[in-house]
Write a structure and sequence with these properties.
heterodimer, A: alpha+beta, Nuclear Transport Factor 2, Chain: A, seven-stranded antiparallel sheet, 59% helix, B: mainly alpha, 82% helix
């Protein structure tokens, strides 16, 4: 802490950014990957090729579930759309909770490799692979620290406009600061928006007091009033097969008036009190919570319809939707992706700056920060590449295949962390960045050798999803290798003297 | 050369950190409750607005805790506003 407003804000910016900085970097980068969650899911299931009618596909999936999971209390499905070919289904199976990607033609999971797909990055982004609710609480705390770091950073930074045009390369600390400033300032509205709305997505868990003030412990009334339109009824005990599911879904599409089907929930399947709830696709509008319809699953009669039009709740839904970015057509989706990369790079350069700008304290803590940054920042992209490699290399049909992919991710990240701790940062950066470059550059090759949808084939057939993924992988790989080469060749700016370690 | 950090300084930083995290959260919670009960709209809507406002209050409180001259002033400001908000929430009772 220093005296003076701007100085104390500079101090706060540095420490608020450092405390959970590595975690924030991981959240920012996996969140950035999540922009293309659907596309990643399709790339990781190369067996699925079709993108047919979503009504027929979803109806086929429900017919399959009637045979595969007749005793589940409910099935939850996500209809395929122009971004994702498979139907995602999940349901409780005894004490287990099952998740399956179903083929849009047959409605069955046969022949599709089991994988979490882009869902893995999405979940990690806010659950951090920790048990509920701790991952979400930690992610919220990190988000709040990020918000404080952003605000104090803006206050610290009085020369925002001038620094927008300033980038001095090859000047050590000054260059890092310029890079941090340019990346931070350039996309500042995005950084503020995504951080605030990110904390907001978990607010019912972390800040329920506005709701508690009016509803106390009565969560039933609370849900009914705050998030209405959800039709519930008890199981009757009388068995009855589902009616004409395709007609129900077709009717929902007509009522959405050009909008598409998003999520479908089938409750009490096989019972006379079966209900089919259809949610409008959130890709069709800014607000996250769209129209809801509830049908009698047996007779097909419409039981309830709801569309949100209360100003405050709609505002909340739009803020939520802004974070999810599901509404975004492809131009804005790429902008989300690029701004997310800028945010990740701002955090990473901030972590580097923390050590570079404190040359006086080369103690244990200082070394630890410098080396942890190497393993986290360079290690995470390596781990992501490993996740995709495992997807292509692990045999289809292997037991716990999704688990193998996830373990490949964490083992590689842990190995990179250990490597980063063991090596001098200057060498560690160059070597890990080279690893990252190889991992990403060779990924399209691995994919071409193990599937029929390699880069040459997808370019010839105009398969832009697969071609796009492979081209992005090549771009990341080339960028990383060039950086590694630059780091390897770079001579130290000034001869370094060893200083006695200060405690 | 790094200036030596006094114990008084370190305690001050620790105190402000607790004020920002714990005090800031309590303040945001109290403001959420006050807004949820005081806003003249349907209670579901009031609760929603209050929740969004609370998320703006918390970072502001954290900034305040480190911006003011002393840890004591940081605490005083946060406790005063949180107390006022809690009193309003308590006096109003749940939204009809």
């Amino acid at each position: 802490m220093k005296t003076g407003f701007r100085q104390s804000m500079a101090w706060l910016h540095g420490w608020a950014g450092l405390v959970l900085g590595w975690l924030l970097f991981a959240m920012a980068l996996t969140g950035t990957a999540t922009v293309f969650r659907s596309e990643i899911g399709d790339w990781m299931r190369p067996e699925v090729t079709a993108a047919p009618d979503q009504v027929k596909a979803t109806a086929a999936a429900i017919r399959y579930l009637e045979k595969a999971a007749p005793n589940a209390p409910a099935w939850y499905l996500t209809a395929p759309d122009d971004r994702q070919s498979t139907i995602e289904a999940s349901y409780a199976d005894g004490d287990d909770y099952r998740f399956a990607a179903l083929d849009p033609n047959s409605g069955r999971p046969d022949g599709i490799r089991e994988t979490l797909g882009g869902e893995f990055f999405y979940r990690f982004h806010f659950e951090l692979q920790l048990p509920y609710p701790w991952g979400r609480i930690l992610a919220s705390a990190a988000g709040m620290l990020m918000l404080v770091a952003l605000i104090s950073g803006i206050i610290t930074h009085r020369r925002i406009f001038a620094d927008f045009f300033t980038l001095r390369t090859g000047k050590g600390k000054r260059s890092w600061l310029d890079a941090h400033n340019v990346l931070g300032v350039l996309a500042m509205p995005f950084h503020l928006m995504i951080t605030f709305t990110g904390v907001l997505t978990l607010v019912t868990l972390t800040m329920p007091w506005g709701l508690v003030a009016n509803y106390g412990k009565d969560t039933t009334t609370m849900f009914a009033e705050v998030a209405p339109g959800y039709f519930e009824r008890e199981r009757s005990g009388r068995p009855a097969p589902l009616g004409d599911v395709e007609a129900i879904l077709a009717d929902a599409r007509r009522r959405f008036d050009g909008g598409r089907i998003g999520n479908v929930a089938v409750e009490n399947p096989g019972d006379a009190a079966a209900v089919i709830q259809v949610l409008r696709d959130d890709a069709d509008q800014l607000g996250y919570s769209a129209g809801k319809l509830a049908y009698d699953g047996v007779t097909g009669r419409l039981l309830a319809a709801y569309a949100e039009d209360r100003p405050a709740k709609k505002t909340f839904d739009v803020l939520y939707g802004l974070h999810m970015g599901r509404f975004a057509p492809w131009v804005s989706r790429w902008l989300y992706f690029l701004c997310g990369l800028a945010l990740s790079a701002t955090i990473a350069s901030g972590l580097v700056l923390w050590t570079v700008s404190r040359p006086e304290g080369r103690g244990f803590g200082h070394h630890l920060v410098a080396r942890l940054t190497v393993g986290t920042v360079a290690g995470l992209p390596i781990a992501m590449a490993a996740f995709f490699w495992a997807n292509r290399l692990a045999p289809v049909g292997l037991a716990d295949r999704p688990g193998i992919e996830v373990r490949a991710f964490f083992l590689c990240w842990a190995a990179a962390m250990l490597f980063g701790l063991a090596r001098a940062p200057r060498r560690g950066w160059a070597e890990l960045t080279a690893m990252m470059g190889l991992g990403w550059l060779l990924l399209p090759l691995v994919s071409a050798l193990t599937t029929a949808r390699g880069l040459p084939a997808s370019l010839i057939h105009g398969d832009w999803l697969f071609a796009g993924f492979d081209l992005v992988a090549l771009a990341i790989g080339c960028g990383a290798l060039m950086t590694a080469l630059h780091l390897h060749r770079r001579q130290p700016a000034a001869p370094r003297r060893r200083r006695p370690a200060l405690a | 050369m790094k200036p030596r950090l006094t114990l008084r300084y370190r305690l001050g930083v620790a105190s402000r950190t607790v004020a920002a995290a714990v005090g800031g959260y309590a303040l945001a919670a109290a403001v959420a409750m006050a807004f949820a009960r005081a806003l003249p709209m349907a209670r579901a809507e009031a609760s929603t607005v209050a929740t969004i406002v609370a998320l703006l209050v918390m970072p502001a409180a954290a900034i305040w805790a480190f911006a003011v001259g002393s840890a004591a002033r940081a605490w005083a400001g946060i406790v005063a506003v949180a107390g006022l908000a809690a009193a309003i929430a308590w006096a109003l009772g749940p939204h009809p």
